[in-house]
Amino acid sequence: MQFPNDDNGQLLTEIAAEGVDLTIPQHIDFFILFEKKDQAQSFMKAISEDELAPKTELQQCKDTGVWEVITTVTMVPEHTLLGQTEQYIESIANSHEGYGDGWGLMA
User: Fold this and answer.
1) What is the average pLDDT across 33-47?
2) C-alpha to C-alpha distances, 13 to 8, 45, 78, nearest whole angstrom
3) Cα(7)–Cα(16) distance, integer angstroms
4) CA distance 9 to 22
5) For 78, phi and psi rounded to 5 degrees?
6) Are the C-beta atoms of residues 85 and 93 closer than 8 Å to each other?
7) Tens-place pLDDT, residues 41-54
8) Tens digits of residue pLDDT in 56-105
9) Residue 16 has pLDDT above 90, yes or no
10) Which pLDDT belongs to residue 52?
11) Three-state secondary structure along the chain?
12) Residue 29 — pLDDT band, cuts 50, 70, 90?
C-alpha cells in the first residue's frame, strides 16, 4: 500500500508492514491531552455523547501530571478519513482547552 508522505502516512506504512489489514475496521485510539482534570472530564462528556466516539478512557501521566483522554473510534484506517477524524476530535478538544497528541491502533 502507498500512503502520502506525512506523519499519518508514515504511521500507516509502519502498521501495514507489521501485517495489519488496513482494509477492515480497526479500533483507532486518538490521544487528547489536558492540563486540568475538569477540562478532560468535560471533553469526555462531550465526546461520549457523539456517536462517532462513544468509548473514552481517562488517565494521568505519572511523570508530567498531564491528563490524557483516549478516545476510541472503530473505523477503516484510511489516510484521509483518519486526518478528518483527528481534526474533528481535536476541534471538540480545543473547546475544552485540550490538544491532540496523535493516534494509534492496537491490532
Assistant:
1) 95
2) 9, 33, 11
3) 14
4) 12
5) -90, 140
6) no
7) 999 999 988 888 77
8) 999 999 888 999 999 999 999 999 999 999 999 999 999 999 999 999 99
9) yes
10) 81
11) CCCCCCHHHHHHHHHHHCCCCCCCCEEEEEEEEECCHHHHHHHHHHHHCCCCCCEEEEEECCCCCCEEEEEEEEECCCHHHHHHHHHHHHHHHHCCCCEEEEEEECC
12) very high
CA–CA distance, 98 with 2 (Å, rounded to integer) = 32
Residues 6+ apart with CB under 8 A from 49: none
Q: How many angstroms separate the CA atoms of 92 and 59, rounded?
A: 19
Task: Give the residue carrying C-alpha cell 468509548.
Answer: 55
Cell output for 52: 462517532
Per the CB < 8 A criterion, the answer to whether 68 and 61 are in contact is yes
